[in-house]
Amino acid sequence: MSKQDGSSRQVTTGPVDDSATPILHVDMDAFFVSVELLRRPELRGKPVLVGGTAGRGVVSAASYEARRYGVNSAMPMSVALQRCPNAIVLRGDYASYSRYSKQVMKIFEEVTPLVEPLSIDEAFLDVSGARRLHGSPAEIAWAIRERVRSETGLTCSIGVAATKYVAKVASSRAKPDGMLVVPAAETLAFLHPLPVSALWGVGRVTEESLTRLGLRTVGDVAEMPADALQRAVGPALASRLTRLANGIDPRDVETARSEKSIGHEVTFGHDLTDPTQIRRELLRLSDDVAVRLRRAGVVGRTVVLKLRYGDFRTVTRSRTLGEPTDVARRIYDEASAALGELVGDGARIRLIGVRAEQLRPSGGGAALWDPDEEWRGAERAVDEVTARFGRGAVRPAALVRPGEAAARVESMRRRPLDAAGASRDAADAAEAAEGRAGVDRTQFGG
């Protein structure tokens, strides 16, 4: 059974002590599917999926009727249709989802300024300062649900608790279209019977490790000796799981959230086996990550490589730099080094991802020696051309098919010049940037 199919729904129906529960977690119900059903009401009550169907499409969202067949988001569409052959598949309309998301977030912000969006369809709210105007936390949660329904036609589920973690767990238990208040004094009574998978940070692999220790519930984890838990999952995760299992979560609702990582990944239409082709994709992803870092005005100190094989086995490798960077070439070099022996010998690669972590503002003090200085200049020249002529005007030579670079530069030269000679300047910059980026072109079989 799917873990969020509504079969274990738990809601608050009567008076409850919410005096010490100022944190709300609001989660829209099957958001993408629900937006689609506003336009296709005849599909209500049927198993509906939103996602891609071509090649290796994945499920972006599933209705609760589909979840009862064991279908979940992020599942390959081919697997979903095996489990639920009568599912109706719709292509996503992400512009509509964004529009409804903004409408819902506006409702939250009219209740309290302390709103922390987690994604397009969920957010934390701290209503400590809203009680005098809007009532108790439970009353506020009830009012939000009613407003969302009346103003958008959508439903949401809300968890009300003393901490962010417990509020999020409560909202998942209340789905769909419910509200669950967990009084502060009853936090442990609520958490401890839940399966260990309810703990943040417990995925399939960690759950298997805990199960081997005989830990099946949150309460089991809370009672586990610290040294034994550390041996099973490592000291950092063991400490966090112990705190959460005991209802300890001191984090505040953060209204100004900074990105903790910037990354890109791609799932291929067919498995890649050629190491040269894999490294070309790695270079393209590294370039995408670097562009986003520079646009955000940040640099990253850790580069993380993610690989998923044809059998769905997933591995990650990370490398920490001496100096943080926003240079694609440095990111690529580190990701390529992490790739090491993970490819070759017929290994079939389904997905590649690259991301930068440990972000901080760029320009925070120059190093004595900048090993990326030459590449930094070339990539910033590319940024300038891109800003004027669009993405793809200049790319690393390794990503350009034979003859394509010369044709692109020539097409720029043939454009009418503006008063400042912009097209000629862009063509010259393109030649310079691509010439520098092409130093190691043969390495990639470009």
CATH homologous superfamily designation of the domain at 261-437 = DNA polymerase, Y-family, little finger domain
Shape from CA axes? globular
Strand count, sense and closure of the main sheet?
5 strands, mixed
Number of strand elements = 12
Under CATH, the topology of the domain at 261-437 is which? Dna Ligase, domain 1
Strand content: 15-25%
Termini gap: 48 Å
Total helices: the number is 17
Seen as an oligomer or otherwise, the chain set is single chain
Q: Features of this protein?
A:
single chain; 446 residues; alpha+beta; MutS, DNA mismatch repair protein, domain I; DNA polymerase, domain 1; Dna Ligase, domain 1; four-stranded antiparallel β-sheet; disordered C terminus
Give a structural overview.
The structure is a single chain. With 446 residues, this protein is of the alpha+beta class. It has 17 helices and twelve strands. Strand 7, helix 7 and strand 8 form a beta-alpha-beta unit. The chain is globular. The two termini are 48 Å apart. The C terminus is likely disordered.
Short description:
The protein is of the alpha+beta class. 41% of the residues lie in helices and 19% in strands. It has helices at 31-39, 64-67, 77-83, 94-111, 131-134, 137-152, 164-174, 187-191, 204-212, 218-223, 226-233, 235-245, 275-296, 328-339, 373-389, 404-413, 422-437; strands at residues 23-28, 48-51, 59-62, 88-90, 115-119, 122-126, 156-161, 179-181, 261-272, 298-309, 314-325, 349-361.
